[in-house]
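Subject: Sanity check before I submit

Could someone independently write out the structure tokens for this chain? I want to compare against mine line by line before I put it in a report. The sequence has 186 residues.
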Amino acid sequence: MTVADAKKTADQKMQKSIETLKADLAKVRTGRAHTGILDHVMVEYYGNPTNLTQVANVTLIDARTIGVQPFEKKMVAVVEKAIRDADLGLNPATQGEMIRVPTPPLTEERRKEMVKLVKSEAEDAKIAIRNIRRDANETLKKLLKDKACSEDDERRAQDEIQKLTDKFVLEVDKLVVEKEKEVLTV
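---
Independent answer below. Compare away.
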């Protein structure tokens, strides 16, 4: 492994941490409806647990209602049950072939809990990014010890990895501020 490889690996891993945070934040419910709420709902499809998005079309009907239209008519009841059992606090209602999923408005107390959850997710992401920095720095020290790079190269690479870390931590903070604003908007 070279110094460039260590930096590239750290960058890729930090980017994955950001993507994971974005996915986790998408699951946090806000006052508005969004299709991401149902992304992890699993439906029993011919005996196999299948992602809801693979057995139904999920759309937004309005700001507070999600529409779910199963591809097969006989799946309507199964999909409705899966949404109800997904422990999301949602109560779907069937209208013919369409399942309407109204999202209830969040109480002030629940909004504050959601903000705490968002901050917790962000802190986990920051910890992951810092751990990646630590691993990269250890790799650089090992390269220096093995005389695969000079002290100057190692020092420069550590500085660049620190800049990367700062950049990604700043991105985490930005994502959190956006999500907090979204959660607290009534």
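---
OP: Matches mine. For the report I'm noting this point. The chain has two domains: 3-27+107-184, 35-102.
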